[in-house]
């Protein structure tokens, strides 16, 4: 709950993140509004960006309401996420949650990164990162397994290694309802313009890391932990 609340608060589009989480939980605007004791139009206005960003108290009530509704329905979504968090794919090379948020610009500098799309979000704060072996991910991970990459929050950078063009990671992100805060590509030898186009279409910052090896990439990320 704390991670979802933080994810909404830190997002540049909190209403959009509210909508995505509500849809992941399979809850209608009417259900959550009734649980919160408010009009469904209030939820609709926040999700549609017609109201200013909701306050922390409202967001906490919103997230608590979703969890309560899911619990009443047998904790279907909560159990699903619990199962995912207990399972770790060998496609995940490194996963970390920052004690304090870092901006995408700070992360990009650490990994010798170049923005390929949505550089306007360079000061956006993220709460963690996941380094993924894209080849192992393609060979071994199902669609549901993709949630493993998010750790405990989607407000993170997903860093895909061994991706020669960048298209596959962006296609995977495109069809997944829960979006990361940023995508980092490493090992690109021939960048696919479709990868950049998809990043722009999803409004997700896309960064190219120029570190010489995966080991150097991971070591540079570890420096952010200190």
Structural summary, described in words:
With 226 residues, the chain is of the alpha/beta class. The protein folds into two domains: 2-84, 434 Repressor (Amino-terminal Domain); 88-225, 3-Layer(aba) Sandwich (Udp-n-acetylmuramoylalanyl-d-glutamate--2,6- Diaminopimelate Ligase, Chain: A, domain 1). It contains eleven helices and six strands. It has helices spanning 2-10, 14-24, 29-36, 40-47, 56-72, 76-86, 104-110, 134-140, 167-174, 193-202, 214-222, and strands at 92-103, 113-117, 125-133, 156-161, 182-186, 206-209. The chain has a six-stranded mixed sheet. Helix 10 (193-202) links the parallel strand 5 (182-186) and strand 6 (206-209). Helix 3 crosses helix 4. It is globular, with a radius of gyration of 18 Å. The two termini are 26 Å apart.
SSE order, one letter for each helix or strand = HHHHHHEHEEHEHEHEH
What is the helix tally? 11
Radius of gyration: 18 Å
Estimate the strand proportion: 15-25%
Strand order of the largest sheet: 1-3-4-5-6-2
Give the N-terminus to C-terminus distance in angstroms: 26 Å
Largest sheet geometry: 6 strands, mixed
The CATH first-level class of the largest domain comes to Alpha Beta
Number of domain units = 2
CATH architecture of the largest domain: 3-Layer(aba) Sandwich
Instruction: Provide the CATH topology of the largest domain.
Output: Udp-n-acetylmuramoylalanyl-d-glutamate--2,6- Diaminopimelate Ligase, Chain: A, domain 1
Give the overall average pLDDT.
Answer: 87
Q: Mind telling me the CATH superfamily name of the largest domain?
A: HprK N-terminal domain-like
SSE class: alpha/beta
Which ranges are low-confidence, i.e. pLDDT below 50, for 5 or more consecutive residues?
none
- The percent of residues in helical segments reads 40-55%
Organism: Methanosuratincola subterraneus
GO molecular function: DNA binding
Protein name: Transcriptional regulator
Pfam families: HTH_3
């Amino acid at each position: 709950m704390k991670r979802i609340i933080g994810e909404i608060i830190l997002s540049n589009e909190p209403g959009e993140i509210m909508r995505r989480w509500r849809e992941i939980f399979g809850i209608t605007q009417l259900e959550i509004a009734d649980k919160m004791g408010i009009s469904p139009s209030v939820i609709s206005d926040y999700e549609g960006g017609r109201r200013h960003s909701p306050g922390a108290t409202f967001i906490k009530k919103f997230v608590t309401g979703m969890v309560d509704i899911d619990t009443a329905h047998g904790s279907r979504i909560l159990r699903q996420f619990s199962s995912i968090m207990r399972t770790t794919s060998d496609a995940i090379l490194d996963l970390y949650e920052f004690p304090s948020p870092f901006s995408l610009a700070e992360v990009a500098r650490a990994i010798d990164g170049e923005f390929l799309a949505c550089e306007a979000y360079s000061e956006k704060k993220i709460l963690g990162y996941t380094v993924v072996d894209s080849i192992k991910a393609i060979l071994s991970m199902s669609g549901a397994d993709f949630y493993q990459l998010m750790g405990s929050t989607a407000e993170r950078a997903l860093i895909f290694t061994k991706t020669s063009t960048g298209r596959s990671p962006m296609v995977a992100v495109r069809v997944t309802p829960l979006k990361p805060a940023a995508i980092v590509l490493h090992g690109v030898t021939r960048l696919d313009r479709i990868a950049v186009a998809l990043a722009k279409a999803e409004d997700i910052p896309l960064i190219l890391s120029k570190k010489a090896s995966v080991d150097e990439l991971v070591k540079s990320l570890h420096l952010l932990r200190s």
